[in-house]
Amino acid sequence: MDLSLVLALVAVALSVLFLLVTRARKPRHRGKLPPGSLGLPVIGQSLGLLRAMRANTSEQWIQDRVDRYGPVSKLSLFGTPTVLLTGPAANKFLFFNAALASQQPRTVQRIVGERNILELMGADHKRIRGALLEFLKPDMLRLYVGKIDGEVRRHLDENWAGSRTVTVMPLMKKLTFDIISLLLFGLERGTVRDALAGDFKHIMDGTWAVVPWDLPLTAFRRSLKASASARRVIAGIIRETKAKLERGEASRSSDLIACLLSLTDDSGARLLSDKEIVDNAVVSFIAGHDTSSILLTFLIRQLANDPDTLTAMVHEHEEIAKSKGDGEALTWEDLAKMKFTWRAGQEMLRLVPPVFGTFRRATQDIEFEGYVIPKGWQLLWTAAATHMDGSIFPEPDKFNPSRFENQSVAPPCSFVAFGAGPRICIGMEFTRIETLVALHYLVRRFRWKLCCKENTFVRDPAPSPLHGLPIELEHKAASP
């Protein structure tokens, strides 16, 4: 398309959106709005926030707003009037208020699908959440530990063993992709898994686009194309799994798709439609893939220059290994013994939460701290607002796993790496399993040091370390 035509269309669209936003800003409520400014039409403060995230100054960006306006302020993000709320009381208000619906940026809705658990509320949300929890309940998770153990060992043998240097982030994404592919979709290695890998590499590129327009050469266009391709692959997996279930070649515990297809209501009708399975499989894949890979990457970064934490972690895992036979896989009971390792994981989630924050939407006019939040406005919470608050977590910049020996010290809704309330992340236990199994073999088989002197990271929108975190490896004596 001719560039001048594109610019003309953009100008027209901006004019229309300006009128719509201007009209939307006319007060239709009584009461005092939070302090702050909605900024420029459509764009608002979106570019400023995204720049701060990519420059790793997003925490300061939030703090500057709090210093200027207080813990409650209005702004505009991604074309929608928004209220930023900070502090434990604000988090509790956001997570437990029935008048608030979950809301992702319109870009996320279009990429992921509108029948996913993040978007639904009421009876539909309860139905979908209940279905996904069937796959993630403890007796099911016990069955997956051995499969995850096998994937981790295979990954380390193929990608780490024999190497002098590796780049951590892409390898952790590869590991968690393989685990998720197996447990969600029942996919062994092959062309279908490779096709999904290519799609999910780009599916998140445009999720936080400032303006959700499907234009050529944009990250949002790449995400839409990748999503459409992945959804076709998943639809094909659903058809194949249905056939396997009918032939008795699969069971409810085989993988997520088989589990969701097997669920029925009181009348015997299927609990979820094919579209709902596809949408929620995409969300589950993104959540399970990104959270664990980011957590593992940043723990590896931390352990490179933290000998005390590394020593304690190695001791914990060597003690567990002594109780097992050669080549014996980890069990659910073994994971329960990895208490120090998971405290380190929680502390890393506090310092570098994989999700910067998410949105809620007011379904009616509501009040908080004397301010009115109009119906239809979105509310933003960010994990850093409490995670890096020195009055809640003393010396917040310091990595200190002992904080989590007694989690009742911090006020409720302060540590919110997985959210809280009725919409708390249902995959947090799955993330814990992936992380503990991977670290068990990493710290026992390798030592490492960072290749880059500069130890920084950016958010785009998820955190990513400089150059993907290249490290130099030293191989320990062979471990089972």
Continuous helix count: 17
CATH topology: Cytochrome p450
What's the CATH superfamily, by name?
Cytochrome P450
Shape: globular
Name of the CATH architecture: Orthogonal Bundle
Q: Give the DSSP E fraction (strand runs of 2 or more residues).
A: 5-15%
**H and E string:** HHHEEHEHHHEHHHHHHHHEEEEHHEEEE
Helix fraction, binned, reads 40-55%
Supply the CATH class: Mainly Alpha
How many domains is the backbone divided into?
Answer: 1
What's the count of strands?
12
Task: Indicate the low-confidence ranges by residue numbers.
Answer: 1-16, 21-27
- The span between the termini is 59 Å
Enumerate the strands of the largest sheet in spatial order, edge to edge or round the barrel: 1-2-8-5-3
Major pleated sheet: 5 strands, mixed
If you average the pLDDT, what whole number results?
87
Which short descriptors sum up this protein?
globular, Cytochrome p450, 480 residues, 3-stranded antiparallel sheet, alpha+beta, disordered N terminus, 17 helices, 5-stranded mixed sheet
Structure description:
The chain is of the alpha+beta class. The protein has one domain: Cytochrome P450 (Cytochrome p450, Orthogonal Bundle), CATH 1.10.630. The chain contains 17 helices and 12 strands. It has helices at 3-25, 46-54, 58-69, 88-96, 106-112, 122-136, 138-159, 168-185, 191-200, 219-247, 256-262, 274-304, 307-322, 332-336, 339-351, 384-387, 428-445, and strands at 72-77, 80-85, 100-103, 165-167, 357-362, 366-368, 371-373, 378-382, 446-450, 457-459, 463-465, 470-475. The protein has a 5-stranded mixed beta sheet, sandwiched between helices. A hairpin with a 3-residue loop joins strand 10 (457-459) and strand 11. Helix 2 crosses helix 3, helix 7 (138-159) runs parallel beside helix 17 and helix 13 packs across helix 17 (428-445). It is globular and about 70 Å long. Residues 1-16 and 21-27 have low confidence and may be disordered.
